[in-house]
Write a structure and sequence with these properties.
The complex is a heterodimer of chains A (74) and B (131).
Chain A (H helix, E strand, L loop, with lengths): L10 E4 L3 E8 L4 E6 L9 H14 L4 H10 L2
Antiparallel strand pairs in A: 1-2, 2-3
Chain B lengths: L1 E5 L3 E5 L5 E3 L11 E6 L6 E5 L6 E5 L14 H7 L7 E10 L2 E4 L5 E4 L4 E4 L9
The chains are: A alpha+beta (74), B mainly beta (131).
Chain lengths: 74, 131
């Protein structure tokens, strides 16, 4: 992992399009500002991980389970 | 026409214009960009089958069939991703799975599709829009 030290109002760039700026810091929180193209989806990581694990669970259902869901929704 | 193997349905042949393109993939499957929507077993439930991975397929349904009050209004960035200029082209699907005897629909993270441009994206909703 790349580790960089930044002060309030300093930024890092990821590629040409994405700029992340440290807006504020206190004892336990860092407030970040993110400039990125609007097509770029940005998530808090714990949220992204939740969506991801839900998708992974849902991606491997069998044809048999399809039929059971169909019956359950009748 | 393109043809591809699937683990559940064998070889599938489909017209290229039936392919839905998810530019970012779905969370968990970022490399899979192309899917098709398949009717199956005479029900409103459908399969969203990955073109680029034979094993990946989601069971999906129009959320209005489960909850008539469910509404999604795409924000501007979602509209940009979908190239959505005509709201009539918007289709919404939710992913369904089972846990024990319970059927779980992922109302929080619907799939939004532009039926005109055949582009799709999965969004996260802060609040689930049901009354």
């Amino acid at each position: 992992m790349l580790v960089l030290t930044r002060k309030i109002s300093e930024s890092i760039k990821i590629g040409d399009d994405i700029t992340i700026t440290v807006i504020d810091i206190n004892a336990t929180h860092v407030k970040l500002g993110i400039d990125a193209p609007s097509v770029q989806k940005i998530y808090r990581k714990e949220l992204y991980d939740k969506i991801k694990s839900e998708n992974i669970l849902a991606s491997a259902l069998t044809v048999d389970e399809f039929v059971k869901i169909k019956e359950a929704l009748k | 026409m393109i043809s591809f193997q699937t683990s559940r349905f064998g070889l599938i042949e489909v017209a290229e214009e039936k392919i839905i393109y998810f530019a970012e993939g779905l969370p968990g499957f970022p490399m899979i960009k192309r899917y098709i929507l398949m009717d199956y077993k005479d029900t409103a439930l459908k399969w969203l089958q990955a073109v680029d991975d034979p094993d990946v397929a989601f069971i999906v349904v129009e959320p209005s069939l489960l909850n008539p009050d469910y509404r999604v209004s795409p924000d501007d960035s979602t509209k940009t991703i979908l190239n959505l200029t005509n709201d009539d082209d918007l289709a919404v699907l939710v992913i369904i799975r089972r846990e024990g005897d319970q059927v779980i629909a992922n109302f929080q993270c619907p799939l939004l599709l532009n039926a005109g441009t055949m582009r799709g994206v999965q969004v996260y909703l802060d609040t689930i829009p049901v009354s």
